Amino acid sequence: MNALYIKNLKKTYKNGVNALKGVDLTVNEGDFFALLGPNGAGKSTAIGIVCSLVTKTSGMVEVFGCSLDTNSADVRMHIGLVPQEFNFNIFEPVGEILINQAGYYGINRKDATERAEVYLKQLDLWEKRFDMAKELSGGMKRRLMIARALMHRPKLLILDEPTAGVDIEIRHSMWAFLKKVNAEGTTIILTTHYLEEAESLCNNIAIIDHGITIEQTQMRSLLSRLHVETFILYLTEKIETLPDCGDYAVRMLDETTLEVDINQQQNISDIFHKLRKCGIEVDSMKNKTNRLEQLFISMMNNKKGDINEAATR
Amino acid sequence: MNLSQQLVALKTITIKEYLRFIRIWIQTVLPPAITIALYFIIFGEIIGSQIQDINGYKYMDYIVPGLILMAVITNSYANVVSSFFSAKFHHSVEEMLVSPLPNYIILLGFVSGGLARGIIVGLVATVVSMFFSDIQIHSYAVTFSVFILTSILFALAGFINAAYARSFDDITIIPTFVLTPMIYLGGVFYSIKMLPEIWQTISLANPILYMVNAFHYGILGVSDIDVSTAFIIIVAFIVVLFYFALRLLRIGVGLKP
């Protein structure tokens, strides 16, 4: 069953802005799905419509087979939302925010209190349960919103830039938590500007730009489209001249660092072999940029080229 | 959501709203007590002693019902308008909008919060008035029903104000420029029989006049208005405002782009 099915979703605001010009999206049950796009692409509007925060102009939205038009209450029952902006009452205690949220879904106070304890402990907020939300740090507020979204045990969790402004350590702990939630059966849709986050967590991906879906595919299949990957190689010893590496495009960044482009026909182990022949050992290596980021930028540039081309015609 | 889930949700919003104003009781419950005490001292003791009896009651006693109801009206209204607008302003209202809560539960929840504050402040005002007057309640049924219905009515009005409000200025304009003049001209401090005939007729267009007079009847047993007419008008306003507020929620006025 599809966790989310969106067909030709359009939104035109009163001021005439066409935020969505026809978004199509299919998210399978159990998926960890990345919804990407530049700022202003329409991601948050699409999410707002799915979560009943924005009224659509036209198009179809179904969540686990329930239509937003005819069965909005069931749609909302299935969804947990972690929005981009903090949207809780900062003058309420942390524990109360969770218990109240559960109450809005008809969960009695006793059960809600037990669930709140579970999520607050899992997200390292238990010690803060009596504190006002305004006293939490940015990372804690993000985690509070995740806990709040899970209180009614939704089948579909939508995260709109959940790790924005969060330090790397907390981000990684949040990734681990979200992977666990997904492994337990919750379908997750993630929007993020940290593309390594999407690459590391998600199986499938859609890219929205200028209010339309320009791509929807498997993460693996999308990454395989990357023609050239650039790696940075850190050498064990200093070298004075660039070694001969045959067909490989190798550049010397400094005495102990090389940059090499590897295309789809080439193999990274070959370059190690060639360097070893020249008496050079590689200590460590890394991708110059995140692969998805590289691809995303190239897709966005191509899209802009198409738009500019169309404009000059 | 089934009925029992809806009741849990309604209870949740009501408790949340109750705790909200109790947590800040110094701003919400104490000021009306001080204000009403000042009204009694200035209008009742100092000026009131110079004024002749109205409808057979000393001026101090005559203004008791109006002052209590004034506290109920302003606090029921203020609670909902500030709470719902703050929820919009901080976007915490989205917690409810993304949930399967029916609109009428959201509305009833906020109104219950306004009613709770109206009742508590009304009781505080009653206790304060006991220090200045020793009147007996003429009809408990009329007194309590007017008390509750008026509180509900102005909680609904506060909700509508908050729905349309776009800034904090917008939630003070109506209470300052509409509500307060209507209360003052609604017979809290005088009987409309003391007015020239033309002003008596104009006063009948003020709905608060009916509530104040029905409350006067409940406590003192005297009224310038027929009490059954007053009840019809209060209930009619509640029904109209309730459906209007529900409509605003349904189309998302001030909530959905």
Describe the protein.
With 313 residues, chain A is of the alpha/beta class. In chain A, 36% of the residues lie in helices and 28% in strands. Chain A has helices at 43-50, 72-78, 94-104, 109-122, 138-150, 168-183, 195-201, 219-223, 268-277, 291-312; strands spanning 2-12, 18-28, 32-36, 58-63, 66-67, 79-82, 156-160, 187-191, 204-209, 212-218, 228-235, 249-254, 257-263, 282-287. A 6-stranded mixed sheet of chain A has the order 6-7-8-3-9-10, sandwiched between helices. In chain A, a hairpin with a 5-residue loop joins strand 1 (2-12) and strand 2. The model of chain A has no long low-confidence stretch (mean pLDDT 88). By secondary structure, chain B is mainly α. Chain B has one domain. In chain B, 75% of the residues lie in helices and 0% in strands. Chain B contains 11 helices and no strands. The longest helix of chain B is centred in the N-terminal third of the chain and has 31 residues, at 59-89. The mean pLDDT of chain B is 93. At the A-B interface, helix 2 and helix 3 of A face helix 1 and helix 5 of B.
Please give the structural blueprint.
The complex is a heterodimer of chains A (313) and B (257).
Chain A: E1 2-12, E2 18-28, E3 32-36, H1 43-50, E4 58-63, E5 66-67, H2 72-78, E6 79-82, H3 94-104, H4 109-122, H5 138-150, E7 156-160, H6 168-183, E8 187-191, H7 195-201, E9 204-209, E10 212-218, H8 219-223, E11 228-235, E12 249-254, E13 257-263, H9 268-277, E14 282-287, H10 291-312
Parallel strand pairs in A: 3-8, 3-9, 6-7, 7-8
Antiparallel strand pairs in A: 1-2, 1-4, 4-5, 9-10, 11-13, 11-14, 12-13
Helix pairs in contact in A: 3-4, 3-5
Chain B: H1 3-23, H2 25-28, H3 30-47, H4 59-89, H5 94-97, H6 103-130, H7 140-164, H8 170-184, H9 197-203, H10 207-220, H11 227-251
